[in-house]
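Reviewers asked in the last cycle whether our approach scales beyond single polypeptides. To address this, we selected a multi-component target totalling 1130 residues and predicted its structure end to end. The input consisted of the following lines:
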Amino acid sequence: MSGNKRIVVVGGVAAGPKAASKARRLDQQAEITVIQREPELSMASCGYPYYVGGLFNDRNALLSAGTGPVRDPAYFWGVKRIMARTETEAVAIDREGKTVLCRDMRTGATEQIAYDRLILATGAVPSVPPIPGVDLEGITTLHNMTDTDYLRRIHDERKTAKAVVIGGGLIGVEACEALRESGIQVTLVELQPQILSFLDWEMAKLIKNHLRHKSVEVITGNGIAAFLGDDGRVTSVRLGDGTELPCELAVLAIGVRPNSALARESGLAVGATGGVIVNEYMQTSDENIYAVGDCIETKHLTTGEPTHAPFGDLANLQGRVAGENAVLGNTVTFPGTIATGICKVFDYAAGATGLNEGSARDAGLDAVAVIGASLDKPGYMGGQLLISKLVVEKKSGRILGAQCVGPGDVSRQIAQWAMAIRGDLAVEDLVNADLPYAPPFSLAIDHGIMMAHIMQNKRKGRLKGISAREVKETVDGGAPIFVIDCRDPEEYREMRLGLGEKLIPLPTLRDRLDELPEDKNAEIICYCRVSLRAYEALLILEANGWKNVWVMEGGVVAWPYERER
Amino acid sequence: MSGNKRIVVVGGVAAGPKAASKARRLDQQAEITVIQREPELSMASCGYPYYVGGLFNDRNALLSAGTGPVRDPAYFWGVKRIMARTETEAVAIDREGKTVLCRDMRTGATEQIAYDRLILATGAVPSVPPIPGVDLEGITTLHNMTDTDYLRRIHDERKTAKAVVIGGGLIGVEACEALRESGIQVTLVELQPQILSFLDWEMAKLIKNHLRHKSVEVITGNGIAAFLGDDGRVTSVRLGDGTELPCELAVLAIGVRPNSALARESGLAVGATGGVIVNEYMQTSDENIYAVGDCIETKHLTTGEPTHAPFGDLANLQGRVAGENAVLGNTVTFPGTIATGICKVFDYAAGATGLNEGSARDAGLDAVAVIGASLDKPGYMGGQLLISKLVVEKKSGRILGAQCVGPGDVSRQIAQWAMAIRGDLAVEDLVNADLPYAPPFSLAIDHGIMMAHIMQNKRKGRLKGISAREVKETVDGGAPIFVIDCRDPEEYREMRLGLGEKLIPLPTLRDRLDELPEDKNAEIICYCRVSLRAYEALLILEANGWKNVWVMEGGVVAWPYERER
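The resulting structure, written as structure tokens, was:
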């Protein structure tokens, strides 16, 4: 045995190879071994849905970097002198002896592999509900290359007519799109009252509406009770309320759990989330063992609470930190997450960073939120709509989180907000932000800056905002309320909300004040397309003595309910 | 005369109407007047080049918001109760009497308009060089609607064969594209050694190369001496070195100066930049007079120095601040600029925020810079190249500035960096940034985070970087140097730099160490496509005893000089 440091990494998808590569860069002499259950290494697992959907067709693209070679054991040895042992399972850890018991899954042969530092990157496992019929053929997750190959075959064969996707999180929504792109009629079933739990309800509802617009049927607030089958193959899904959805395919996407069994069995500390507990150096309760990626729990930087954040980008960053610390001792840290995420939904995107209104409330923070909408760039440059919700701490104005959905450039918006949160910025820091502006890229007042302006106006008490949900509940509840649509007649003719609203185009408002309630304390709600004109209407009405005027935030474009056409 | 506050705004393009609108929102009683020289109001002047180039064809799109009505005096009165007086010139200010002498440019009639608060938004004037022939027909700027209409006619007529654009700033580069889209052969002439001065030389050179690739001839380091003409029409441009460029059209884009004559003549303080001096409330040296937009100078937030920053986004933000302060007293501030900008260059973009390496040095800052390249998202999702240069303060690692060019999503990158600078973040804050990742939007390790990683490696002394320029100068100077191309043979066959380099693909390096200089102190330079493999090569060589190994930053894709094919 040489005197070189022995680094053993368990897990070969994202965090593991990254940790191994970083360790190699910093120590050319170390003996580095990666233990990987699957035949493949370094898979671009976030790309699975797009390969399934036929957005690209080269399977090897999931296994290589750019135009480079497939990252197989020969590649890892040739380029990085990393011994990658695929189809090999880490069965147990002897922490005292500092060895990992491994089993070759092809031969069954076992072997003790000694380590000086061990890095666990065992990933997550998809949750599978313990319900009747779950083992029928035609039921799959979308978690690994086997699942991916299975679903891609279905894509290529074009024989499947109907599918049910169970679970409306990121993977579920991505699976819906992939299956639609495979010519399959899709129903999405979600137990919770909304899909995409990183969004607040009304933002998620906009995405639900868009999925329906793309012919994905979406059922929320309904779980699955059983899978029914015929001849061992799934033929339908029975929901909690008894509904039966015929299908030849069901994709389970109800979430993932940290794959922390090996750590737990080795006596390492595991948290309430099910994730391995690590410190900021990515070190477990055993100083010789690090853990990274989907198998750990991570600190949420705003709440300070541990959270399970199974994101590919964080896995890579954590792997980089553990790889360095494993060879150099604890020198670098991974501070935590603000739960930034984004998801393609056909020609829309949905993204969020930080806390949403619900999670801010759950964290005991006194938050104020606002919804706004605008194009991402000028209409004449092909600008597309963005609808955002900004959440800030009431007293300080500190940015707690932001959500953004729509066909526009959601990616830039969420990236901006993520950086703003990282910099601990407040609304007042952002109202005059200096962002890259030219008509091909943004509005003169960028959508994000506009959101800060709206929030500033709200915090100063100038814009009294009311959410679409409150408006809907008020109207449905039959409360006396005067609703003004401030848009132009053409816009109104094309589509309207049907709340018993009165059309008073903004340019005519000053001359039509006599049509408003005489009672200056009457509740009045104004809206327009994005509620900018409605804000001007509110200011005019307040100047004329009305005391209870509200702007419906986000206007018509952010209205999550039915409309009249 | 009523007792209402009288607000007079001089200038009706961007900052002026914004100030007037904000004032109206906060004071429904104020008498608000906008004085505008041109017949149009509220023009989307940043959109002129795209209308000229035919990217869109509706002239009214430049004069309206989205699908809304044209913002003419009737609109301003009807919707906002703002009196907009177009084709009216503000001739003089009587600061003691608090009146503006105005002249109706159609009738010549003059009138004194009284103000309580005056807001100057007089914009900028394009610089016109005092050289022979500059008044010939066929010579224009691209600054106002008249210029725009003129150039759009040329676009539509398709009769012009050759044009010269003078000045390689943002407008000049945008004009080149617009003229190419008009079927015109274009030569761009720039007096300085590089175009796009917000970029460092080697980044600008990449854009110069791209312009040439798009059939725009680019001549740098050469000024214009005269315009030659025939029958009153321009026929060619004579350069400083005597070259004559035949053309039927010349577009002057050598920059703009603050239009501060009215302020200066009124005795208001004007700075060395030529811009009106204002405090953070946008207030001039006269407490009753505010100034905003392209006519003022603004504080650069990093250097603290006054700068002329004629950007449409800042004009709007400043207008918003002045509008509020004019009616409410000084309550809100505009802190300054970090000179964020972006420019479309055909299918590329070029953007920057903060200081570049040159301006950081000029500001006396001890800066360190690095160049890096990657795709913006995975290749399988159609990822496009981004090449960035990151500039940080040497000691603290504080981000001073970033530049980014390429066909990829430059907009998000620059927006991220702008927010990072606003949050006063340092490299160590960004190596683990939590940004929106999904394959349709970014790499698992976002390009910007990768830049932070490279900078971190450089600051820790792990990555010894050398710029392409230094490599070129060293090779051209004949210094003994051993250059290794670490790419694969296929990449090398397709294109190479031709520096006398030796092809040693990274996977073969460990077995070919005997081909390297015996002298362990020999200077060795490694590169690959983006210099990630080259970094691994450096680490291998250092581990084998070579002491002077350098990575050429940015690799082949950032090489600004000729290549061999």
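Chain B has four domains: 6-124+257-328, 139-254, 341-459, 465-558. We regard this as preliminary and will revisit it once experimental data from Aim 1 are available.
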